[in-house]
């Protein structure tokens, strides 16, 4: 289990135990509500733990739990209550005992931290995925996507690379994609999320989405509502940049085409290189030469031939894909 999931499991246990120990103070109740609303996964995990507790009739009737419950009701002072809360949280494992505790812990772990389905592509590979809610995800080269079973929200995480989403309309269950420190929330729309080591990009072709950041930087927005036809680019150490976009060109990769409009040869080579196991190199003296073209994502040869045909560069001697000065 990841550190984030372990933290959530611990928070669920603490809040569950505190509520079982007796009524919360107004301040604690406000803090509890804030925690529930901070992340849809918090509410799902807490409700899962509550259902599990309701199913464990044997635990509820255990004399040790009954004694602790009565002690909690009669406790006075916050220090004594905190001791009781800790005892209630720890008593589950004590009461179950042995192999039953191991099985119960596995069951509770599965509910508090349900395991996602993982989809991944190799270099040069793309993949279309039909999600359980009827949405479609298309993974770009060298990308990884995790998808959880639909609940109150439809949760996904783009671990690396790029993915296009065509979201099934469902106003009651938001579609949330995590990507690094950012999240994109939609109800029914089409958008592209591109996660690179030093940048994050969303291109919205249909509908509306809200993009949020967990760690807003000085001068940067922490949430942006996007309309169709716009793109948002966030770079490490810089502000967010929201601008109009040619969505058909930006999402050309979904059909295997990369569209470049007056782009430097070095930039084109770098993008095509994401699809190739063979390096694509451009000599520094021609790297800034610009070209407009629609190129097959998995055919570097077309790039080399186009640059030569336009007189921008020539193929370098030797094997592989390389351009040098004409």
Describe the model.
The protein has 3 domains: 3-112, no CATH class; 117-249, Jelly Rolls, CATH 2.60.120.1440; 256-324, Phage tail protein beta-alpha-beta fold (3-Layer(bab) Sandwich), CATH 3.55.50.30. 37% of the residues lie in helices and 31% in strands. The chain is built from 10 helices and 18 strands. The strands form 3 sheets. Strands 1, 2, 3, 4, 5, 6, 7, 8, 9, 10, 11, 12 and 13 form a 13-stranded mixed sheet that branches. A hairpin with a 5-residue loop joins strand 2 and strand 3 (136-139). The longest helix has 19 residues, at 78-96. It starts with a helix and ends with a strand.
Quick recap of the structure?
Helix content is 37%, strand content 31%.
Tag the structure with descriptive keywords.
10 helices, single chain, alpha+beta, elongated, Jelly Rolls, 3 domains, 13-stranded mixed beta sheet, 37% helix, 18 strands, 326 residues, three-stranded mixed beta sheet, Phage tail protein beta-alpha-beta fold
């Amino acid at each position: 289990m990841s550190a984030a999931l372990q933290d959530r499991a611990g928070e669920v246990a603490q809040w569950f135990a505190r509520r079982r120990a007796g009524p919360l103070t107004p301040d604690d109740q406000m803090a509890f509500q804030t925690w529930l609303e901070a992340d849809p996964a918090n509410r799902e995990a807490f409700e899962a733990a509550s259902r599990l507790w309701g199913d464990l009739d044997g635990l509820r009737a255990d004399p040790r739990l009954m004694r602790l419950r009565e002690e909690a009701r009669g406790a006075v002072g916050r220090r004594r209550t905190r001791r009781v809360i800790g005892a209630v949280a720890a008593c589950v494992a004590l009461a179950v005992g042995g192999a039953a505790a191991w099985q119960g812990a596995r069951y509770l772990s599965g509910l508090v931290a349900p395991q996602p389905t993982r989809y991944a592509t190799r270099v040069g590979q793309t993949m279309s995925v039909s999600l359980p809610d009827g949405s479609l995800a298309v993974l770009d080269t060298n990308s990884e996507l995790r998808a959880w079973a639909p609940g109150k929200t439809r949760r996904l995480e783009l671990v690396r690379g790029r993915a296009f989403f065509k979201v099934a309309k469902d106003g009651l269950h938001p579609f949330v994609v995590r990507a690094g420190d950012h999240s994109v929330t939609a109800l029914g729309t089409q958008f592209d999320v591109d996660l690179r080591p030093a940048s994050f990009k969303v291109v919205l072709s249909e509908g509306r989405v809200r993009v949020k950041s967990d760690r807003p930087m000085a001068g940067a927005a922490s949430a942006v509502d996007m309309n169709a036809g716009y793109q948002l680019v966030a770079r490490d150490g810089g502000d967010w940049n929201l601008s109009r976009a040619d969505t058909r060109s930006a999402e050309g990769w979904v059909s295997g085409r990369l569209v470049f409009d007056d782009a430097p040869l070095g930039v084109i080579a770098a993008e095509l290189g994401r699809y190739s196991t063979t390096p694509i190199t451009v000599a520094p003296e021609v790297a800034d030469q610009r070209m407009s073209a629609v190129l097959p994502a998995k055919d570097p040869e077309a790039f080399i031939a186009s640059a030569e045909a336009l007189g921008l560069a020539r193929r370098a001697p030797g094997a592989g894909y390389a351009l040098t000065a004409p």
